[in-house]
């Protein structure tokens, strides 16, 4: 395996980390109108992610920076062809971050309620649009011989991509509900568990449909995203990896529902993290060795023609080897420090509107 392929795996790793960590943030934001009976309930839910949401969000910055440095052609085509969806994601994330900081600045119910709506939409839209974007990357987009995306926004809103957006949205919602159950107590914890179990039913059906479609498309019966394998044996091994990742996601999702029903929120949260990680890994494995397939027959970007020079990748690899363990260690320490449950008693009376 050459260094460009190693960096493809690292890009996948950083995006897996982003969706696992920021995924439950999105879920908590989407759960505000589902679980919050009053402002104190909503404050409790927001405080469960208060110490970590911004740290989780930095993973997308790292993933984007790594993508830019390691695969500049991929980055250029992706960000130009997906400009509007990515801009909407950015605006939604900004609105969500502002809302976390400003909703408690005035003791007025309408003030807080408006920012709660911004948190909800600032969580739902990125989850949905990220799913649409990644599904389109796997499916392929119209490109010319210069690797320019020539499709329109309506080309991105195809059935497979919309199903991908719905899948990621539901997975993030269940992930967030399980996290709320893990980090709270009392009535909120009970409501979160019950809602997570109810949401797990359509999530399992939708996710199974999407992953099955992804695996089916990868076999070459209907997708431009089929990798250019060198032999039938390589194609077979590749397909086994894709199916294994999809199966792991399905089993982990069922395990998360079981552990939630049994009241083992810690194990349920771990299982949901595995579910999302395996689902994202399925997409990257389906994509390999392409990075942005073309549906026009020309302009497909692969690991080989989209990567930086070996020297650049070698220098970056040393930086990643040194920095990544430090980031993981600091994040683990942060979660350990803020590991206690948040209850209504935690919210000062003066903070409740």
TrEMBL record:
Subcellular location: Cell membrane
Keyword Transport appears in the UniProt entry: yes
InterPro entries listed in its UniProt record: Cyt-d_oxidase_su2 (IPR003317)
Main location: membrane
Membrane topology listed for this record: Multi-pass membrane protein
Domain of life of the source: Bacteria
Spans through the membrane: 6-32, 77-98, 119-141, 161-183, 195-216, 236-261, 268-288, 315-338
Keywords: Cell membrane, Electron transport, Heme, Iron, Membrane, Metal-binding, Transmembrane, Transmembrane helix, Transport
Family stated for the protein in its record: Belongs to the cytochrome ubiquinol oxidase subunit 2 family.
Protein name: Cytochrome d ubiquinol oxidase subunit II
Species annotation: Nesterenkonia flava
